[in-house]
Amino acid sequence: MRARRAVVRTASAVVATLALTAGLAGPAVAAPGAASGPAAATNDPVTHEENDRVPEGSVWTEHYFPSSDRSGTRLHADVLLPEGLKRKEKVPVILSIGPYFAHAGQTGPEGWTSTGPSARFQDFIEGTDLFDQGYAFVMVDLRGFGGSTGCLDWAGPGEQADVKAAVDWAAKQPWSTGAVGMYGKSYDAATGLIGNNLDQRALKAVVAQEPVWDMYQYIYSNGVPRPNVTGTADAYNSIATMPPMADDDPRYQEAARYEEAHPECLTENSAGYRISDQQDEHWTSRDLAEMARGSDTPLFVTQGFIENNTKPEEMQEYLDNHKGPERGWVGQWEHVRGGDRTEDGRLAMGRAGWYEETLSFYDQYLKGVGPTVRYPAYAVEDSTGAWRAQDTWPVTERRATLPLGDGSYVDDGGASARAALSEPGGPAAKGEPQPTGRWDMENAPAIERPVPDGLAAENARRGRAGETGSSYFVWSKPLKKAVRITGTPQISLTARGEGNVMLKLYDVAPDGSAVMFDEQVSLVDSGRLTVDLKATDWTLAAGHALAVEIGSIQTGSWRDTPSGETIAVEDARLRLALDDPADDVATPGDRSPYLDTYLGQYTVTLPAGRGTFTVVPGGRH
User: Fold this and answer.
1) What pLDDT is recorded for position 381?
2) Which of 458, 456, 450 is nearest to 426 (CA)?
3) Cα(170)–Cα(137) distance, rounded to whole angstroms?
4) pLDDT score at 43
């Protein structure tokens, strides 16, 4: 993780009263004793004609093998081999490891009437014509899920041991060439990052769509709990206790009911989410970005800069620490897969060719077959909806450290500004519904709660009047030439007081319309504080200004506890990586549909104030 002053005080009373899942799925059932060693297939190969849950062109078998940590954990694998594979013929393996491969359903029962392999990545299997292309596809349940025993351990040492065991097992099977690639989205993309970090010789390539780059940042923002601090624990406890199918084999049924005999698994999983200290061993052992240091597995990633689930936090740190070949699609979309389409048929990422490009990537690194198409290392969609090709991401033409000066705000959660909005004649404040229910790495609200009309403008007005309100603004001078803010913006400041801080960046047009395009929050104690914002790729047009808001947490869904203190800020500085859009090399791609949804949600009225700094020092822009 990036060096920053640790804030270790209790984040919120709500975390201390974290609710645990109350019930377990199904009655206790006696089961045969568990075998601890590797096992042959538990069933004869099953074809699509025999079970229509088996993908066409493949045969399905189930297997069990031990995890690598000598804990006695037994893992379950569903194996799909090309139909007609000869006895001594070998194929490379595409492996996916996660919590979503239970026979009954991904995040809950899906209404199947008989058992069979998960259809989670049927789109990938069909889109690549995987079996005809000469690959096996293996789905492994992490400990505590599906047909695997053991206590779930959210990206922790236990799950890391599972990934290691699964890669080794897949490489050593008699039908395997020994070359393994990993594929996934969201949680099973994070296990792909874990696979890269483990540096196993058999793992030749990883495709990771919308992963979590550092597990702590998914639950807390620098000490401030996120809305899913309880929901994520509850979601995975629920998935772990999903009942098996009636016709699953006895070992699978025993494993699916493991938590009935071991309720401590659920309690311990929930307890981990209560730890708000980023430096605690619970979180340092899950800091995937730091653990990527020196790794070199060929890596193909996707990331939506404006998505609201697995956000691009510590993304740049992970990629900086990774030293192997990289490929990426990064841009302005939500939590989607490379081949997903909207209801009206448009590609969700806006770029065609996902399955062809991923298959070419695997062919290159698992089969040694060179690509027939010259793909860019990175295909990048910026905030204008335009796509460009780059050799890496980010490309930084210059770095700037911009002075934001001094200021102060009241850590009141926006109460003062909202009170002004509710006065007669003021704009009506919108309601603030909080996210409820389960929130996992696959399913989360696509959009934060709406910002009350006029909130930003009211805070700016109070600042211009010399009042100390819920936040204050600092504006740049209008740009003379377009410039792109890329990479990971960073703000440092010296604070006097204790509470919370929210940091936001706005793209302000000459007509006073402003898009909030980056934000982050943190706990604050007196002293120097440095905060990384989310990674971004946002172009400021000529004539636009950059606005920085520093203040209390007033928007979003964080479960913060306002201190009520007046926080004095001194010597605030903004560090930016800048790129010149004039140098872009275009690559095919359309505007991702979600970009317009985002702009509609996060555009506010914020007339520019007096500019006190220049985004690009030296007058070039």
Assistant:
1) 98
2) 458
3) 10
4) 75
Task: Report residue 463 as tokens.
Answer: 């600042």
Alpha-carbon separation of residue 473 from 404, 409, 449, 526, 610 (angstroms): 9, 10, 22, 21, 10
Residues contacting residue 478 through CB under 8 Å, at least 6 positions apart: 510, 543, 544, 545, 608, 611
Strand order in the sheet with 499-508: 603-605, 513-524, 499-508, 545-551, 471-476, 611-613
Distance (Å, whole) CA 100 – CA 211: 15
CB 92 within 8 A of CB 135: yes
Following DSSP, what letter does each residue of 598-621 receive, concatenated? HHHHHEEE-----EEE-SSTTTT-
Torsion (CA) 349, 351, 354, 358 in degrees, nearest 10: -100
CB 525 within 8 A of CB 495: yes
Residue 578 banded pLDDT, cuts 50, 70, 90: very high
Q: According to the model, what pLDDT value does residue 425 have?
A: 52
Question: Rounded to an integer, what distance in angstroms lies between the CA atom of residue 377 and that of residue 393?
Answer: 9
- Element holding 238 (H helix, E strand): helix 228-240
Reduced to 3 states, what is the DSSP secondary structure of residue 38? coil
| CA separation for the pair 453, 509 (Å, rounded) | 18
Instruction: Tell me the average pLDDT across 599-609.
Output: 92
Q: Express each pLDDT in 389-407 by its tens digit.
A: 999 999 999 999 999 999 9
562 preceded by cis ω (within 30°)? no
What's the CA gap between 481 and 620, in Å, rounded? 8
What interhelical angle do 187-198 and 157-172 show, nearest 10? 80
**pTM > 0.85:** yes
Scanning the structure block, which residue is given the tokens 């550092």? 214
Residue 445, pLDDT score: 67
The residue written with tokens 């009935």 in the block is 260
Residue 618 β-bridge partners? none
**Strands (E) located in 318-424:** 326-331, 378-381, 387-390, 398-410
21-32 confidence digits (pLDDT tens): 333 233 222 233
Asked if residues 396 and 577 have their Cβ atoms less than 8 Å apart, the reply is yes
In 148-214, which residue ranges form alpha helices assigned H by DSSP?
Answer: 157-172, 187-198
End-to-end CA distance of the chain: 33
Counting DSSP H helices and E strands in the chain, the numbers are 16, 24
CA distances from 422 to 161, 252, 263, 417, 469 (A): 55, 58, 48, 9, 15
C-alpha Rg value of the chain to the nearest Å: 25
pLDDT in the model for residue 459:
87
DSSP 3-state assignment of 410?
strand
Question: Is the predicted pLDDT of residue 94 greater than 70, yes or no?
Answer: yes
Adjacent-strand bridge partners of 508: 514, 545
> At 461, is the pLDDT very low, low, confident or very high (cuts 50, 70, 90)?
confident
In the prediction, which pLDDT does 438 show? Answer: 61
Nearest to 173 by CA among 238, 232, 240, 88: 88
**Helices 264-272 and 228-240, packing angle to 10 deg:** 150
Q: What is the pLDDT of residue 449?
A: 65
